[in-house]
């Protein structure tokens, strides 16, 4: 085995594969990779394999030959000139995670998480979700032939995500409560042995998610960017990116680490509040609310890991309003042709705001991770665009209707 599972807080070994926290101190878990075996190699040696999650198999805790894969990862890194001008910054890239098989970054974690479930011989998997995790898990469970149960917050899941979870054959349960409630319930079901839990509290999930950082470095020819900006909900992704960078630094494959910058929606910003107060822990938000339903989370399970990621990399965290999120979403679509869902646009809104605040310098090289596809949430898009023009079916009427 090339890894072991340990407690993030007390570092104790946690050999029971079904626990979702440390039995001694209740800290969250993480996978400690044995990096000794690959110290002599270099990331350039991985380059003969296609860009994607499994290019980085030597840094993953599941064997590539046993992977349940839909060819996830390998997403575009767009250099965005117009956005750079708009944000008045020298260079900005968008890592478009909407190009993953189910349209979000969750597929990176799910290929590893579901592969682990199969390795353990589990027959049923489950998660709580604001939508994307459920869509992704449903697809990978289908591929692996596993039963799948997803718990969703009632009325707050974007229609594209809901359709995916149903389409891929998951049992979809809407709960009277928010994501945080749903996560508590699914953890309980997992503890009772009804399912294998595949939220990002499962330490194998972030292992797949960390590959987004490896890809960014490959795509930038290993010129480390100054900053990586990403939306924060349950805080799994920012912690995973931090882990990736820490491993590359430990291997001596990078000599600096980008400033990790987390963006939350104003109505749902426990990490930002903790960061502002210089705290290492956060207070849960009782009633999180935002148009960016993907990050409508008040009690982020990886919140402590996220704060460590931000402090350790000299990064920052700010919140953006729903209006700022929707404006950034539209701008990215209209100026760069990149369609992202509202939560993903938070990273763009965050960049613009941080530049206005003078917290990001003009000459920084910034990568914004945009986590999900615009088609995930068509209702929000339609509401925020100009109304559709109705016309009779002849050329003159159309010209009249569009104003010539
Ligand atoms: N962006 C999108 C599109 C998401 O779906 C999520 C999380 C995030 C950002 C935040 O990532 O939780 O790792 O900090 N979605 C989860 C879900 C919670 O259930 O789909 P995070």
Characterize the structure shown.
- With 404 residues, this protein is of the alpha/beta class.
- The mean pLDDT is 97.
- β9, α8 and β10 form a beta-alpha-beta unit.
- It is built from 14 helices and twelve strands.
- Bound molecules: ligand F0G.
- Termini separation comes to 68 Å
Give the number of helices.
14
How would a textbook summarize the main sheet? 6 strands, mixed
Computed over alpha carbons, the radius of gyration is 21 Å
Query: Judging by the overall fold, what is the CATH architecture of the domain at 77-103 and 206-384?
Result: 3-Layer(aba) Sandwich
Strand order of the largest sheet: 3-4-12-9-10-11
Q: State the helicity in percent bands.
A: 25-40%
Overall mean pLDDT score? 97
- Determine the structural class based on helices, strands and strand pairing: alpha/beta
Rough outline: globular
Q: Can you tell me the residue ranges where pLDDT is under 50 for at least 5 consecutive residues?
A: none
> What fraction of residues sit in β-strands?
15-25%
CATH class of the domain at 77-103 and 206-384: Alpha Beta
Number of strands: 12
| Succession of helices and strands | EEEHEHEHEHEHEHHEHEHHEHHEHH
At CATH level 3, the topology of the domain at 77-103 and 206-384 is: Rossmann fold
The ligands found in this model are:
ligand F0G
Summarize the structure.
The protein has 404 residues and is α/β, with parallel strands linked by helices. The protein is built from 14 helices and twelve strands.
């Amino acid at each position: 085995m090339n890894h072991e599972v340990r407690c993030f807080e007390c570092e104790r070994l946690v050999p029971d594969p079904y626990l979702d926290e440390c039995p001694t101190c209740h800290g969250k878990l993480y996978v400690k990779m044995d990096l000794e075996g690959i110290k002599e190699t270099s990331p350039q040696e991985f380059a003969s394999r296609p860009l994607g999650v499994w290019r980085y198999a030597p840094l993953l805790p599941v064997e590539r030959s046993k992977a349940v894969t839909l060819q996830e990862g390998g997403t575009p890194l767009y250099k965005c000139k117009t956005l750079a001008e708009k944000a008045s910054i020298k260079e900005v890239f968008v890592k478009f995670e909407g190009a993953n098989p189910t349209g979000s970054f969750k597929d990176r974690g799910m290929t590893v998480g579901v592969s682990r479930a199969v390795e353990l011989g589990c027959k049923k998997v489950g998660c709580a979700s604001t939508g994307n995790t459920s869509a992704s898990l449903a697809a990978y469970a289908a591929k692996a032939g596993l039963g799948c149960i997803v718990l969703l917050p009632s009325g707050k899941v974007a229609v594209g995500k809901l359709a995916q979870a149903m389409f891929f054959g998951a049992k979809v349960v809407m709960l009277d409560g928010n994501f945080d409630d749903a996560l508590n319930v699914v953890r309980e079901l997992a503890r009772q042995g009804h399912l294998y839990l595949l939220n990002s509290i499962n330490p194998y999930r972030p292992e797949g998610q960390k590959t987004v950082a490896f890809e960014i470095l490959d795509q930038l020819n290993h010129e480390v960017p100054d900053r990586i900006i990403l939306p924060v909900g349950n805080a799994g992704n920012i912690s995973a990116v931090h882990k990736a960078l820490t491993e590359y630094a430990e291997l001596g494959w990078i000599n600096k680490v980008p400033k990790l910058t987390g963006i939350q929606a104003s109505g749902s910003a426990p990490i930002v509040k903790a960061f502002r107060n210089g705290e290492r822990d956060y207070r849960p938000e009782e009633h999180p609310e935002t148009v960016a339903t993907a990050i409508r989370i008040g009690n982020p399970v990886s919140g402590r890991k996220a704060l460590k990621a931000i402090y350790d990399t000299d990064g920052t965290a700010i919140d953006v309003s729903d209006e700022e999120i929707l404006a950034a979403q539209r701008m990215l679509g209209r100026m760069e042709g990149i369609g992202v869902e509202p939560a993903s646009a938070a990273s763009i809104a965050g960049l613009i705001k941080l530049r206005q605040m003078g917290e990001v310098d003009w000459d920084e090289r910034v990568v914004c991770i945009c986590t999900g596809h615009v088609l995930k949430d068509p209702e929000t898009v339609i509401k925020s665009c100009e109304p559709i023009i109705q016309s009779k079916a002849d050329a003159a009427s159309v010209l009249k209707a569009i104003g010539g």
